[in-house]
Structures are given as structure tokens and as C-alpha cells.
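[Automated response] Your request has been received and processed.

Submitted sequence:
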Amino acid sequence: MGLALAPSVLARVGPQPGVISLNSNENPYGPSAAARRAAFQASEMGAYYPGNVRRDLVTAIAEENGLKTENMILSSGSNEALSAAAVAWGKTGRIVAPALTYDLHLRFAANIGTEVVRVPLKSNMSIDLEAMESAVDDSVSMVYICNPNNPTGLLIDGDELRDFCRRVSKRVTVLVDEAYTELTEDPEYSSMIRLVRDGENVIISRTFSKLHGLAGMRIGYGMARADLAARVRSYSNSWPNIVGLAAARASFHDYEFRKYSREKIIEGRAIVNETYLRNGIQPLPSETNFVFADIGRDVSEFVKKLRDHNVRIHAAYPQYPTYARVSMGIVEDLEIFSEVFDELIRT
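Generated structure:
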């Protein structure tokens, strides 16, 4: 017999009805049907710790990437692995990172004593690899790069980043956050995975939150040389849950959904780019599920106006107060955003 829950027991999650949420780089096309079925089945086994489902997922990811299970790190969202790496390496030296990038894990490490060296972006908003390499000295233990970068969406050329990683990783460990790599034009070229296969001093992190649409289920993973992976695992302080693991395993094998999800995100990105361009705004070329652009006015005030129309985008970035980041929603919501944006930007 099924268990009927009173409405008060069911927690409200996700956007409120009628609200268009374009602020958190989520993927509203997920979870896939296969992932939802797997999650439901796994929930019935919620009394038990995950066993085989965890091993199956780790094995599948390792095999697809030409690695062994000893190279794998499974985490509660990619931020768990990123934070573990930042803390582990932060105990022995400073961390070099771009001044504008995803940095929740860096702030966590800084709060417990790690010094983070922030390197300004270039004038075109791209990551300044030359300046970052110059910042590496004997006091540095790690370099962190998000590629494509968040919030700019800009992608570093694969060969350029590989050359950088090979040089710098001879001196310090390089941590490459590939949360959005699966959304790039050529993921295999963009990824630093071949450096991991070659045993370089490089760690890669990825997530099921973006392409797979499992942000709320908190499943991420890392890939690295066996000794580096073991070090990150030793600093992790949580485990992925059985429901999320089951959903991730099903989604990982659902190649049709992965293709569909990527196509819908690219379709949505085109809508946002076209909206900017017809209003005389040049967006940065994004290969992610968000678009960053200088809209020529105070974003904090513009965000308030959008909220009055039930549209949510990311808050302003202090360093770049006129730059707006818009995440991809479903196409229908993005079309409404487009109409609202046209109206507000012209007033």
C-alpha cells in the first residue's frame, strides 16, 4: 500500500509557481525519466548504506574515461571534492586562482587558514594563464582553474591549457574544474583527461548537476593519479546518498538524455544571446549553461526590476557591477525572459 503524505509534509523545492529561475546554473530538463525511476527504487532502500550502486557508478565513469577505479573520487556534489582538495593542498601552501571564478571551495579553505592568491582576468575577461604561472613560487601548492570559467562562460583552448598544465604541474598540483566541459563544442578536446591518463600532477572535477540535471541530488566526482585521488578522498567528510547515486548511475548510461539535455541547453543559450544582441549588447562567447554580458547598467537595480516580473537571474558581481549572468531555463521560460528583458532594457 502506498503512503499518502499530507500537503504540509511535502517540502516546497525548486522555483515557486510562476517564477522563472535563471540564477543558479541548474538544468530544468533533468532528472531524466530513467534517473527518476532509479531514484524512486533506491529510496525504498534508504535504510541501507550505498554499496554496489556506488561501485557501479565509479566503475562506469572510470571505464568511459580510460581510467581505473583507483583514479576516481566520488563526492557529494563536485564542491565536496573541490573543497577537500583545497583544504588538503592548502595545508602545505597557497592556492593560485583567477580573481573572478567559481570559488565556494576557495572561500571555505580560506576560512580555515588557506591563503588564496587572486590573479586578475585579462581585459577581455579571459583567464590570464601567463600571470597565473608567474604567480607560482615556492609558497604555492596548487593552482585552480575552472574551464569553461564561471561566471564568464569563456573556454580556454584545450591545447593551450594542456601546455600550461604540463609546465605548471611540474612545480605544483593543478586542479581543473570541468563542471561545464560536457557542454562545450568538443568535450574531449576541452578536457584535461588525457593528462590524468598520462599520470600528470593534475586533478579534474566534474558534476552531475549540469548536463544531467541532478543539482539537488548532490553527486560529483574527480579523476586524478592514484596518489592524488587518495589524498583528496582522505580529506572528504561526507558521502553521496543512495538516491543520488542511483539516479546518477542511470543518467550516466542514458546517452539519449545526455544528448537531448545538451541540445536543449544550447538552444536556450541561443535565445539569450539573440536577446542581448538585438539590444546592442555583446555577450561573452559562452560554452556553458549560462551567458555573461555587460548590459551597460547597474545589475543590482536591474535584478530588482526583473523580480517584479517574476524573473530571477544571478545577483551582481561586485567586481563587475554591470555584468549580468543568466542561466538556462526551459525554452518557454527563456522566451518570457527575452520579452521582459526587451521591455526593461529599453526603459
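Summary generated for your ticket: Residues 33-252 form a domain with the Aspartate Aminotransferase; domain 2 fold (CATH 3.40.640.10). The CA atoms of residues 79 and 105 lie 6 Å apart.
If you did not submit this request, please reply to this message.
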